[in-house]
Amino acid sequence: MFDSPITSIKRDMFIRTTPERVWKALTIAEELNRWETQSASIDLRIGGKVELDYGWGVLTSTTVKEFEVSKRLVLEEENGDLTIWTLEEVDGGTLVTLEYTGIWAGEDGFMMVEDMAFGTEQFFRNMKSVLEEDHDLRSTFWTSWVGVRHHTHLGQGTQGSIVCGITEGTPACSIIQEGDIIVRVNERTVESYNDFEEIVSMTPPGQSIAVTVHRDGEQHVLHVTTVPFGEKSPS
User: Fold this and answer.
1) Could you tell me whether strands 58-68 and 161-166 are parallel, antiparallel, or unpaired per DSSP bridges?
2) Cβ 101 vs Cβ 84: under 8 Å
3) What is the pLDDT of residues 177-225, one digit of tens each?
4) CATH 3.40.50.150 fits 6-139, yes or no
């Protein structure tokens, strides 16, 4: 199932604005902070450093490998992985494409790919909202979690997202188990990684949610309480 490693993750978004405006949103720290980062430092020259702080304890450091103003920006990590932004002028706006290159293998690699793709889609939605409507959506992103590590179930039979680990000390501990296939949260069907993350991460902290799982051929409804994203359960 996970025999072949994944070497590229690509997503795109149409935004009703010019490539020049999107370029500023990508390469001017104050503009980047409006839709993606909490704080940013950008030295836009070949070999220049790009330091980004997203909040939630997430920081990245890359080097500018290549750029063409208003068209293409390539950032390189220390291990050689690339982040490639491409801007294409189309009727009525700009097609923005983001590609990550690397090697993601096995179950953990697949889970990481789905997590990166989900995060990209969230920030793309916010870029579009900020550039088109001047409205920042980030207050609704990653508000809660329950500590489940999971990925879209690729096996035969039940559709859902399969649990591949639980973070110690989080609400899911001793309730949800590794190997459970999550098929529903409250009344909403879960068919993929994104479905579960969208529901849980946008639920306010302190809310009890009903998680329906398939376990050992049986269906169980489990109740867990959300906590602020990245935090452990109250002691």
Assistant:
1) unpaired
2) yes
3) 999 999 999 999 999 999 999 999 999 999 999 999 999 999 999 999 9
4) no
Look at residue 82 and tell me whether its pLDDT is greater than 90.
yes
- Architecture of the domain spanning 143-228: Roll (2.30)
Q: Is the dihedral of CA 128, 134, 140, 141 positive or negative?
A: positive
Report which DSSP code applies to 231.
Answer: P
Q: State whether the Cα torsion 206-111-149-215 is positive or negative.
A: positive
pTM (whole model) above 0.85: yes
In the numeric block, which tokens belong to residue 161? 């997202």
CA 167 to each of CA 7, 146, 176, 231: distance values in angstroms, whole numbers, following the listed order:
27, 9, 11, 10
Q: Rounded to whole angstroms, what are the CA distances from 178 to 16, 114, 147, 150, 169?
A: 43, 18, 12, 9, 15
The amino acid at residue 71 is K
Contact 20, 70 (CB under 8 A): yes
Structural element, H or E, at residue 148 = strand 148-152
- For CA atoms 26, 28, 34, 39, the dihedral sign is positive
Tell me which residue has tokens 């309730």: 175
Q: Give the residue extent of every domain in the chain.
A: 6-139, 143-228
Residue 95 φ/ψ, nearest 5 degrees? -90, 115
